[in-house]
Amino acid sequence: MSGNPAILAPSILAANHAQLAEGQRTIVEAGLSWVHLDIMDGHFVPNLSFGPKTVADLRKESELYFDTHLMLDNPQDYIEAFAKAGSQNITIHVEPDIPVEDTLKAIRALGCHCGISLNPGTPIEDIQPFLELVDLVLIMTVQPGFGGQSFREDQLPKIKQTAQWREEKGLTYRIQVDGGVDATTGPLCKEQGADTLVAGTAFFKAEDKEAFITLLQE
Ligand code: DX5
Ligand code: ZN
Fold first, then answer.
1. What pLDDT, in 10s, does the model give residues 115-145?
2. CB count in 10 Å sphere of residue 76
3. Can you give the pLDDT at residue 218?
4. Parent domain of 72
């Protein structure tokens, strides 16, 4: 195992966007330390969410670790703005035709942790060249763009493969899973080696958040 303590990172995309600070307070009051910020451009994914100003305003409201997931065609153009807004991890996707290695290095140069992510249709081998450069690998278990979709169990082997590479190469990156994670699918991901789980819908809808958190962070 990686030795990374298990983390549940609620996606604030699933909160009420007219009261995002309230959604963030819910995460803080649940005793969690990360918030997952889904940034969407309407190009790389068929949806829009929010930008650097929203992140900067949320930054003033909490000490949470801002885990920022850029679902953008041109993330390299926005990493500085999100770093300045208070992002502490910035994850980019491997699919856009951009200088991925340079962008990951630029994120680190801004003083942030960096992550690489891939969609369900992308082979896990596509992220292999970047493993030595990242603090986090984000495996999408839904086609990104919307919360509340069904978890795709066919993505579980990617988690196992990423965990094997981490072991073989003596690396310590976090393995994060995002999309349809709930009380049933979360443990499946952890069994394969994931240590960082994103949950939007399941977290904000959970009646007993303490039990949900215990299950996914134990
Ligand atoms: C989807 C986002 C996910 C999503 C997770 O594009 O990247 O973070 O918000 O939402 P749930 O947990 O509701 O599936
Ligand atoms: Zn996400």
1. 999 999 999 999 999 999 999 999 999 999 9
2. 18
3. 83
4. 7-217
Hey, how many other C-beta atoms are within 10 angstroms of the C-beta on 113? 19
Distance of CA 141 to the CA centre of its chain: 11
Nearest CA owner, ligand 1 atom 6: 144
In a domain, 145, yes or no: yes
- Going by CA atoms, what residue is nearest to atom 4 of ligand 1? 147
Look at the chain and report how many structural domains it folds into.
1
* pTM attached to this predicted model: 0.97
Residue 141 Cβ contacting ligand 1 at under 6 Å: no
Does residue 116 sit within a domain? Answer: yes
- Contact predicate 86/79, CB 8 Å: no
* Domain annotation covers residue 121: yes
Confidence band of 58 (pLDDT split at 50, 70, 90):
very high
**24-54 burial string, b = 16+ CB within 10 Å, else e?**
bebbeeeebebbbbbbbbeebbeeebbebeb
Find the ligand nearest to 199 CA. Answer: 1
Residue 1 within any structural domain of the chain:
no
Cα 132 from Cα 129, distance rounded (Å): 8
Work out the end-to-end distance of the chain between its first and last CA atoms, rounded to an integer number of angstroms.
Answer: 14
Mind telling me the catalytic residues? 38, 178
